[in-house]
Design a protein that fits this description.
Length: about 400
């Protein structure tokens, strides 16, 4: 009898060990929904390559779950409606993991659609990995168990930026220029609220909200900035809207300090390098000059594509999914989502934590400054010989903002 029990116990252990590594060798397919055509195509295409690059680099034995990742692009043309069409196509093709980042309107549409799909299709759930759509509402009133955000949201970045700017005596008058949609509007509102609280001496010299992706010449806006007498500019612009703004500032010879969210995104570093004495600082979860593994990733990406790897959220996404699958001992979306909720995992040089309350990643933020490359900070953005060198590191608690999320869990 003891022998039988011993054999049963051994079989149980072997069975559980086999179950623990049931996901090894599986291929996890990720649908990447973003603009690959239109005015923001250059950004979307860079980020698709970034997802595919880190997915391949950390496949199989190079991640804790032992899975392979396959990332497939679906063009949403920067449209919420096209995002829904792309999501439906991806689900019909069997994708259970979806990622998107360029545009909070598209992210909102995807969250709502994923919620409805998962409610109607138990056992066929889909998880949404949001790597760059930063509307705070997505982890507040619109929060979802199925949604995980990897970037710091607009309010978190502004909390970090205003904490830095309040201690610069030369800043007394700021001009706000932003894209006219939720993100741009929030950049302006959070800046005004943050500085009113931390440095009420700082005045708003002027404010503009311009159409998203439609302005071809920012010269009229720059003329207004110059006439306002502002001694600093704050913008959340990205893509061509940021590149063309920088070009107009260069053409006008306006070199007052510019504080930005996305100055390192495709096309903008080249425009910055074409100017003279551009005084630009950026707030982000990353900068140009990480050391060690992160530097190696950037160098390998540039060698392969002659392009810059700047969306480090793609690495965070692969790290989070792999660790979640290892912890869940499964690739099933419900089990993986449950494992990732509240989980700490390998971040960008330090540990990051996916806050259980709202699925907003808590991590370090950096203020970096546009600077000529040095032996200490050697990276060359877009082969310009310049980069964003870190000047201040902010611990997660500095930029962490409260949440109103009332998450419904399955």
């Amino acid at each position: 009898m003891r022998k039988i029990f011993r054999l049963v116990a051994i079989a149980a252990i072997a069975s559980s060990a086999g179950l623990a590594f049931a996901q090894k060798g599986e291929t996890v397919r990720i649908a990447h929904i973003d603009p690959f055509s239109g005015p923001f195509a250059n950004v979307g295409q860079n980020q698709l390559k970034s997802w595919q690059f880190v997915a391949e680099r950390y496949a199989g034995a190079k991640n804790p779950a032992g899975v392979k990742f396959e990332v497939v692009g679906f063009d949403n043309k920067a449209s919420p409606q096209e995002s829904l069409n792309a999501l439906k196509a991806a689900i019909d093709q069997g994708f259970r993991y979806v990622t998107q980042g360029n545009g909070s309107g598209a992210a909102t549409a995807i969250i709502d659609a994923v919620n409805k799909h998962n409610e109607r299709n138990p056992g066929k759930e889909v998880v949404f990995i949001n790597y760059a759509a930063v509307d705070p509402a997505l982890t507040n009133e619109r929060c979802s168990f199925w949604h995980f955000r990897l970037d710091a949201d607009t309010s978190m970045k502004m909390e970090a930026l205003t904490s830095y700017m309040k201690d610069i005596p030369a800043i007394t008058s700021v001009y706000l220029i932003n894209q006219n949609y939720s993100h741009g509007q929030q950049v302006a509102n959070f800046f005004k609220a943050g500085m009113a609280r931390k440095a009420p001496k700082v005045k708003i010299a002027g404010e503009d909200l311009h159409p998203l992706g439609q302005v071809k010449d920012f010269a009229p806006y720059v003329a207004k900035i110059k006439a306002s007498g502002a001694n600093a500019i704050v913008t959340g612009n990205w893509g061509t809207d940021m590149t063309l703004l920088v070009k107009a500032l260069n053409d006008a010879g306006l070199t007052i300090p510019l504080y930005a969210y996305y100055a390192g995104v495709t096309g903008t570093p080249t425009a910055l390098a074409q100017g003279k004495d551009m005084n630009v600082s950026q707030v982000a979860i990353s900068h140009s000059n990480f050391a060690g593994e992160l530097r190696t990733i950037r160098n390998e990406f540039k060698a392969k594509f002659n392009d810059d790897y700047y969306t480090f959220q793609t690495l965070l996404g692969i790290n989070m999914l792999a660790q979640g699958m290892a912890n869940a001992k499964s690739t099933d979306p419900l089990k993986v989502a449950t494992a990732m909720s509240g989980m700490s995992f390998k971040g960008l040089g330090q540990e990051a934590t996916m806050r259980k309350l709202d699925h907003q990643l808590q991590q370090h933020l950096y203020i970096s400054k546009w600077t000529k490359a040095t032996p200490k900070d050697p990276y060359s953005e877009e082969n310009t010989g310049w980069n964003f060198a870190p000047i201040k590191t902010l611990e997660p608690f500095v930029s962490s903002t409260p949440t109103t999320c009332q998450m419904k869990r399955p």
